[in-house]
Amino acid sequence: xxxxxxxxxxxxxxxxxxxxxxxxxxxxxxxxxxxxxxxxxxxxxxxxxxxxxxxxxxxxxxxxxxxxxxxxxxxxxxxxxxxxxxxxxxxxxxxxxxxxxxxxxxxxxxxxxxxxxxxxxxxxxxxxxxxxxxxxxxxxxxxxxxxxxxxxxxxxxxxxxxxxxxxxxxxxxxxxxxxxxxxxxxxxxxxxxxxxxxxxxxxxxxxxxxxxxxxxxxxxxxxxxxxxxxxxxxxxxxxxxxxxxxxxxxxxxxxxxxxxxxxxxxxxxxxxxxxxxxxxxxxxxxxxxxxxxxxxxxxxxxxxxxxxxxxxxxxxxxxxxxxxxxxxxxxxxxxxxxxxxxxxxxxxxxxxxxxxxxxxxxxxxxxxxxxxxxxxxxxxxxxxxxxxxxxx
Length: 392
Prior knowledge:
Helix content is 0%, strand content 46%. By secondary structure, the protein is an all-beta fold. Strands 11, 12, 13, 14, 16, 17, 18, 19, 21, 22 and 24 form an 11-stranded antiparallel beta sheet that branches. The chain has a 5-stranded antiparallel beta sheet with strand order 2-3-4-8-6, with no helix packed on it. It has a 5-stranded mixed beta sheet with strand order 26-32-31-28-29, with no helix packed on it. The chain is elongated and about 110 Å long. It starts with 5 loop residues before the first strand and ends with a strand. Residues 1-6 and 8-13 have low confidence and may be disordered.
């Protein structure tokens, strides 16, 4: 994303120039002077655009000290200063340079605000990269989050605001810096003056318009992989401009199924918790936990069977809600039998998914029949599964 565009115009060039078809400078010649105007042509009435303007001149001086740091309010054209000759009979020249960024550099983030997760409430999404992520969340982007959305999945507003900029016509993407300017996006202005950016949307995947008011959960568009991206995901950040017009990304707390307010971490598996639903106290995704006769390329559809051959290995596959070291206890019991088999295993801190092969070869009775599997952790029953074993 080009966040800090640079515009230039000299006396020999046209009397106006626009950076990214958004922020424009216009020269209005006067007798023995030139008025310099700026305008954000895509702005809403609420949009604030921080701008830093300087000039390279010969035999001219400005009516105000330069460089000038100021804020453009809304869409209205604003005269920032006038250039006029020092020695009227001598040749003059001038070149205007400027950079800009959406948002007010004087704004202050409301650190008490709790954000909702920025995706469809039906989804469960893994955090691919969080704050200080080694792949790309450094420098100005250090407080950014990559949510592992799939292509076309719905992106929603994490906080109310007004749409102040969008882009959806880019088609290219890849994990190469040459694509850095090619991401599609939605930018939303919040009531504290900060701006949220939702990036990497698919081509023609934006579903809101500039000037539109949005509430929490308003659908903004479809996830994609345009711009500097390894694959489909949503890049989310909240920022305010600095005095040098760089982006200062801001750590934000979210309401999740596990907490009323938390800083989310890389590897977290998250979903939106609806009103009235209590905090999730289990450590694994119960709905995504299966027993399966395969361990690679596991999907919900491929592991929905409840009958297995006792001649094949059978695995427990559990997506963890948050990567960490957990101790799991497995209890297996054949129905109408008093014998219970118990096993314990421990996850690794970096595991996003844990798996365990059930050692049926150790059992002391015929395997054919109906079984009950119970998974425990920290004294809490995580899930109970009934299945059937057969020699067929």
